Each structure stands twice: as structure tokens, then as C-alpha cells.
Amino acid sequence: MNNPNINTKNEILPLPKIESVAQISNLASFLRSNSSIDSPSKLNMMTVNFPLTPNRPRIMDRYRYKDTRRNSNLNEGKQTRKKDRNNSCSIAKSESHNQKTLDSVTDYDSNETSDIEDEISPRLKEQVNKQNFTDFCVRNIEYAEHGRKEIQIAEQEMPGLMSLRRRAEGDKPLKGAKISGCTHITAQIAVLIETLIRLGAEVRWAACNIYSTQNEVAAALAQENIPIFAWTNETDEEFWWCISKALNINGSSDWLPNMILDDGGDLTYYCQKQITSVFNSLKGIVEESVTGIHRLYQMSRTGLLTIPALNVNDSVTKTKFDNLYLCKESVIDSLKRCTDTMLGGKQVLICGYGEVGKGCCQSLKSVGCLIYVTEIDPICALQACMDGFKVVRLEEVIKQIDIVITATGNKSVITREHVEKLKTGAILCNMGHSNTEIDIDSLQQPDIIWDDVRLNVQHLTFPSGKRVTLIAEGRIMNLCCSSVPSFFISVTASAQALGLIDLFHAPCGKYKNDVYLLPKKMDEYVASLHLPAFDAHLTELNDDQCQYLGINKSGPFKPNYYRY
To answer: What pTM value is reported for the model?
Structure first.
């Protein structure tokens, strides 16, 4: 999405005399004095319609609850080996405690369950944790111990968010906040959820993607009495049910959300279409994806947005670190985990040269891929040319392409007509948030055979005999099929937490019912939280230099119109 033309009135607002970020004592006061009140939503933005996802036949029933990279034969082998190990343990009870611990970790598979359990939806199971808490729905609460270990590993690689937790925990800036969240449920997001709770908030949570949930992490959160409703491979109906539970629909009347943290806009869209009364209790929405921001701007233009919303997606820290650097590090890992393909020498088509597309191009170029780019924006197209990539139209190269990656945020970028022109063995995948970029409905026809070869990997065989590999049914590949570096999620999560604090403490009338960018001062604060991890030391300006540049010694150091 193109960055808005930002009104720069907040550049002349008086700034607090803060010598360094470390001296900030009251986070809520800091945010109140440095928040932007300039709305960038008066733009000629693209109008996009986002209907509710219709129920459709599932094509992965055989693997619905098997989180494994191999086929069913290997799963059966795992079950056999597991039984053999259990028999061996019953004979050799004299093993040392350390060896027993090692065996329990080796045997663990968060989704390796019996066939009977696999056929039962979590909604039909009795859900209760060790404290007799029942307000949650996950795949299996017994995975909690291993999920806690995953969260602890993530905490080590999320220095900025953990620093924010330590600094603000005493002030409890979110005390009284009731947050409904709809994001990916991973170990990194679990750190964010628990940080919000430590800052005083009450939360209820659902997943924004039916494939990206880590079942063991969801179980670990449920074990801590956190109302969470998510598991891997939800059906479309289950997906919307989980969102309704995150909003506490038909639940206790004394819990109504007053804040929303959304990733993709599904939670906000559900409120708009199904239960508009929720907006009466809301103070604001924080959104972090291109898809969700499109929806919010569309609601703003049509007068349907009745509360303020904060656009984290177009903040500098999110755009550069999450979109660019995260995708740069995860795209290769995702492709190799799913397909075991050699990438050197492959011809790759990247649809879209925004920050996500740039990261994918840089990464794949480094391993010897020949990159082509499609782009509608002449500025982005010129950037691609200057970076050494060939800008083409899809029809010009589709027949020779080995791998197609979409990263546009648009819909129907790849249709059946395009897929039929791909060579046999070509790989088709998406790195954008929404699953609309690849027209899956046009591929779910009786004459196309879908064969599940791994979790989130299907072979599509056409009447001509041509076979194409589709990854994650067109959903975001790196979060469905791989792992992402926790450090980058720490950057975005810190911005989300600060955004929630800012909106929650905003006095009446400060924000209108519109979409606002994250203030520049807040962006710089997020970045400063992560610098100690690199033992980085910022240079400080003297008074004469500050006067010459016309800036405050503590920032902001760049105007809002500056492009990093």
C-alpha cells in the first residue's frame, strides 16, 4: 500500500525536554505528550471489498491436525516408534532422570495425536486446565509445558518488548483495558499477550490465520488462565466462531472489549457485519497489516468507522523491520521446508515490489535465483530496475517461471489462467497477509486433482497432466510453513503495545473517528528499545547542532514526510 501524504502539523508541537529515552519514567504520560493527532486518511485510496470467506470443502482433511512435514506413512512410523519407546521405558525403569527428561522431549510432537482425537473438533472436547479454568478452546491442553519452553526461547530473542515490559510493568498503563485480539498465535505473539497482561490489561484472543497457530503455545497460554480460542487447521466456520469468542459474544455481560488489536482486519470486520454494538464500548483499534488497513480506510471514507484507529502497518519500524528484513530471512526457509527445492538458478517471479517484495527479491538473489518483478507503481518499478531486477508483465514470462511469489495485498493476482501456463513442477505461494492474491476458488474445480503431499503443500494436477505445487492454499507462507525470527516480531509487537497504550489514555476529542499513523517519536522509541541488543551507542547532538537542524535533542529526528 502506498504511504499516505502525511500532514506535518505535529512537527511544530512542543516536545518534552528528555535527555534520553532511558530517563522516561511514566510511559503513559510520555505517549500522551508525543502522540500524533494528524489523520492521513483523506486520500485517494484503493477501494477493496472484503466479503466473509464462504464455507468451502476442505482439501486437507487427511492432515487437518497433523503438524508434520512428511506424509502419512511417516506419521504411522512415528506412532510405531513412539509405542516401541513406551514399551522400552516400561522395561528399563532404572533409567536416570536426565535420560527420561530427554526422552520426553524427543517424543513430543505438539499435534501427534491419536486418530480418534484427530477426528474430534476442539469445540466438542471438555476444556479445563490445572486451575479448573475452562474459558478457552485449544487443540490439547497437555501441550502446555512444551509451549512454555517455546515462549521462553522467544523471550530471549525479543529484547525490546521485554525491556518495555520491565519499564512499564510497575505503572500498569493498561489497567482497565479489555483487549480483544486477533493475530497469529505463535511463541512471539504469546510474549506480546503476556506483556499486555503484565501491563494491566485483560485479554481475549483468537487466531487470524487457520494454519499459523502453534498448538503448544495456545495450550501454554490457556494453562495461564488466558481466554484463547485457536488451533491449527481450523475450518472457516470454526475460524469465525473463535473470533466471536474473543469478543465474548454470548458470554458474561460484565466483559466487553474496549480495545481491539487486529492483524488482517477480520475481528474489526466481524464487528462491523455481525455485532456493531461492540463499537459503542471501544476506545480504539490497532491494526498492523496491509489488508486490515485497507479495510479501515474504506470504513473511514464511507463513514462506518466510529472510533479512532492506529495504523501500525505503515510505521517505519513495522515497514522496514517486519515487512522487509523479516521476509528477507524467512522466504528461503519457507520454500525449503515445504519443497526441499534447490533455489540456485531458478527463475522466480515476485508479484509486487513493496517492502515484502524487496525482502524476498534480495534474499532469493543472494542464493543465485534469476528474479523477475511485476509492479503497478512506476516508483516501485523504477526501484526494482535500479536494484537489478527485470520488471515484466505476468503474461510475458509465466511459461518459463519456476517459482511464483505474490506480495501485493491485492486480489486475484494469480488466476487459473495463469497457473495453467506454468511449467510442470512450478511452485506457487503467497507472502502477503491475505489469501486473496491467488484465486483459489478458480482452482477448486472438479477437473483439477488436489493431492496433499505434506502439511500445507498440495500438488495440483490439471487435465493436461501438468502438476503445480501450491503452498498453504495461498495463505501467508512464512508463518504457515516456517518460523520467523523473534527479533523482528519484537519490533512490531512493541509498536502495537505502545499504540494500545496511546489510544487507551487518549483524552476525549484528541482523536477523531479516523485512521492515524504511529507518531514519529513513538517509532524512534521502539527502535531505541532494541539498540542495546547490539551494544549500539547513539551519538548525541549538542545545543548548537540542535538549533542548526531545528530539532529537539531527544527527537523526533526526522520529519513525518522523511522516507527511510
So the answer is: 0.73
